[in-house]
């Protein structure tokens, strides 16, 4: 196993991590932005007002995008495990 192979595997792992986590981060970001605008407009500064909707939207996003996330992760792991014999020899 060469250093180039290790770096390439690390790069692929980081790309998969960012790709899988992006829908959840975007859902939290958009929900937080909408709630912040609402709080600024109404001057309501309640912490649970921002926490609960974010939690609900992350859960909904996880339900919707969950199968794709699992498929992406299992495909990466399958490719990784299948390449082990080539890396050793």
From TrEMBL:
Residue ranges crossing the lipid bilayer per the database entry: 16-39, 51-70
Q: How does it sit in the membrane?
A: Multi-pass membrane protein
Task: Work out whether the entry's keyword set contains Cell membrane.
Answer: yes
Q: Name the keywords, alphabetized.
A: Bacterial flagellum, Cell membrane, Cell projection, Cilium, Flagellum, Membrane, Transmembrane, Transmembrane helix
Q: At the top level of its lineage, which domain of life is listed?
A: Bacteria
Q: Which cell locations does it reside in?
A: Cell membrane; Bacterial flagellum basal body
NCBIfam families, per database record: fliQ
Q: Which family does it belong to?
A: Belongs to the FliQ/MopD/SpaQ family.
**Function of the molecule:** Role in flagellar biosynthesis.
Q: What is this protein called?
A: Flagellar biosynthetic protein FliQ
- What's the encoding gene here? fliQ
């Amino acid at each position: 196993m060469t250093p180039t192979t290790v770096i390439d595997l690390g790069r692929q792992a980081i790309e998969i991590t960012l790709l899988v986590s992006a829908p959840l981060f975007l859902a939290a970001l958009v929900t937080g932005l909408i709630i912040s605008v609402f709080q600024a407009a109404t001057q309501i500064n309640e912490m649970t007002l921002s926490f609960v909707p974010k939690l609900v939207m992350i859960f909904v996003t996880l339900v919707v995008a969950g199968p794709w996330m699992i498929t992406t992760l299992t495909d990466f792991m399958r490719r990784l495990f299948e390449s082990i014999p080539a890396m050793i020899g």
